[in-house]
Amino acid sequence: MASDFHEVRFPLDVGLGSRGGPVRRTDVVTLASGREHRNSRWASSRRRYDAGLGVRTVDALHAVIAFFEERRGRLHGFRFRDRVDWRSGPPSAEPTPLDQRIGTGDGTATAFQLVKTYGASFAPYARTIAKPVGGSVRVALDGVEQDVGSAFTCDPATGLVTFTTPPAAGAVVTAGYSFDVPVRFDTDELDIDLSAFEAGAIPQIPLIEIVP
C-alpha cells in the first residue's frame, strides 16, 4: 500500500453523508442434528461504504467524478473519514494519550504499531490503525505523556510510532489519535443518470476498506 495509495482524503462533505460499516465473513454449517458449526474466514473485519448518500448537489457530484478519475477507479487507494469511528475513543471525545494500549516496553524495541481495541471481556478485537491523521497522535509511557518530535514520531502513512529511546522493560505504551480508513473505489464505473439525480435518485459510490 505505497505507490498504489494516494495520501488524500475523500471529499469530507460528501463522506459525512455516507452509510456503511464493518463486514465479516463467517461460514455457518448446519448439521443434521440442527447444531451449527461456525468458522470465521477473515481474521479482520473489512469496512464497506456507499458514499452516494452524501452527494446532494451537481457540484458535489462533479467533485466525486474528479476524485474518481484521479484515482483511476479501483487502481489507487485513498483516505476516508468514517463519521462513526474515527477517533481512538468515542467520536465525541478528543483523543487523549491514554485511550489505547499499543504495547509494552522491553528495553529494546522502539517501534509500536497504532491499534484500536474493540470490546474487553470476552474476545477483544485489535484493529491495526494504519492511517492516523498527521499531528493528532498523542503518546504516553506509564501514563506520562511524551513530547512529539523529541521523544517519539508517528508516520501518518503507516501508523508506526517510533521512540527516540526504547521504552523501559514493562513500561505501558498508550496512545490517542484521530484516523482515516484506507479504502478504494469498489467499481471501475460510475453510472450517473443526471435526470434521475435531479429527481432525487442517489448514485451509488461503493467504497471498500484496504486491509493493512
Topology (elements, then pairings):
Elements: E1 5-9, H1 12-15, E2 19-23, E3 26-30, E4 36-40, E5 46-50, H2 58-70, E6 77-80, E7 100-104, E8 111-113, E9 115-118, E10 125-128, E11 138-141, E12 144-145, E13 152-155, E14 160-163, E15 172-176, E16 181-185, H3 194-198, E17 206-209
Parallel strand pairs: 1-6
Antiparallel strand pairs: 2-5, 3-4, 5-17, 6-16, 7-15, 8-14, 9-10, 11-12, 11-15, 13-14, 16-17
What string, H for helix and E for strand, traces the elements in order? EHEEEEHEEEEEEEEEEEHE
Specify the structural class. mainly beta
Question: Spans with pLDDT under 50 lasting ≥5 residues?
Answer: none
Strand content: 25-35%
Largest sheet: 6 strands, mixed
Number of helices: 3
Mean pLDDT: 93
| Count of extended strands | 17
Short description:
The chain has 212 residues and is mainly beta.
